[in-house]
Amino acid sequence: MTIHNLGINQSVLNQFIAELRDVHVQKDAMRFRRNIERIGEIIGYELSKTLEHTSKTITTPLGTKEMHVPINNLVICAILRAGLPLHQGVLNYFDTAENAFISAYRDHSISEEEFEIVVKYLASPSLENKVLILADPMLATGKTLETTFSALKECGMPEQIHIISVIGSEQGIEYIKDIFPENTHLWIAAVDEKLNDKSYIVPGLGDAGDLAFGIKL
């Protein structure tokens, strides 16, 4: 797996991350969603540099010009519900990409500390020989991505996989290295050192889904 940690470089990306983490700024849910969307746009731009491109002749009012544009074989998959703003940010830059949606959540029926990942909904086009972009803002244990990838396999095997996240833990990143194919790319805006006893990223930013869309039952 190739890891692209965009947060190690000084850029406006770190301003968006700082606001996402800030407990005072977090009170504005619209701003929280928009910052995740903007991070998706930045990652989408950086990711586009690695895609296969093709030559296309463009007709202008004064002549023609050969341009190199990405080949359109992308499927962007949001892991509901927290992945929606990140998904939208990437989609803003890949206008004609196909889209997939999957619900994957932690079931804590055993205890607060123990959980399993449950998938109850999947809508996806064929993924066979396409480029899959998986949008999951918080890469904590890596088990959500593992379960999601397992469910998506019934839709075909992608030619390449790009995972995009806002914040991840070192533990979660190490875990998914053995889950995904070797040519997978991870694009992430920040990496934190540890998880707490409930498997939340520390210092992280809290529950991205609740902060973006409100507290669930």
Structural notes for this entry:
There is one protein chain. With 217 residues, this protein is α/β, with parallel strands linked by helices. It has helices spanning 13-21, 29-48, 84-91, 143-152, 170-177, 208-213, and strands at 2-5, 53-60, 63-70, 74-80, 98-107, 116-123, 131-135, 138-139, 160-169, 185-192, 194-195, 201-202. Strands 1, 4, 5, 6, 7, 8, 9 and 10 form an eight-stranded mixed sheet that branches. Strands 2-3 form a two-stranded antiparallel ribbon. The chain has a two-stranded antiparallel sheet with strand order 11-12. Strand 9 (160-169), helix 5 and strand 10 (185-192) form a beta-alpha-beta unit. The mean pLDDT is 93.
List the helices and strands and how they pair.
Elements: E1 2-5, H1 13-21, H2 29-48, E2 53-60, E3 63-70, E4 74-80, H3 84-91, E5 98-107, E6 116-123, E7 131-135, E8 138-139, H4 143-152, E9 160-169, H5 170-177, E10 185-192, E11 194-195, E12 201-202, H6 208-213
Parallel strand pairs: 1-10, 4-5, 4-7, 7-9, 8-9, 9-10
Antiparallel strand pairs: 2-3, 5-6, 11-12
Helix pairs in contact: 1-2, 2-3
* Spatial shape: globular
| Main sheet specs | 8 strands, mixed
Tell me the number of strands: 12
* Approximate helicity band: 25-40%
Mean model confidence by pLDDT: 93
Low-pLDDT parts are none
Number of helices: 6
Structural category: alpha/beta
Strand content: 25-35%
CA-CA gap between termini: 36 Å
Give the topology string: H per helix, E per strand. Answer: EHHEEEHEEEEHEHEEEH
Radius of gyration: 18 Å
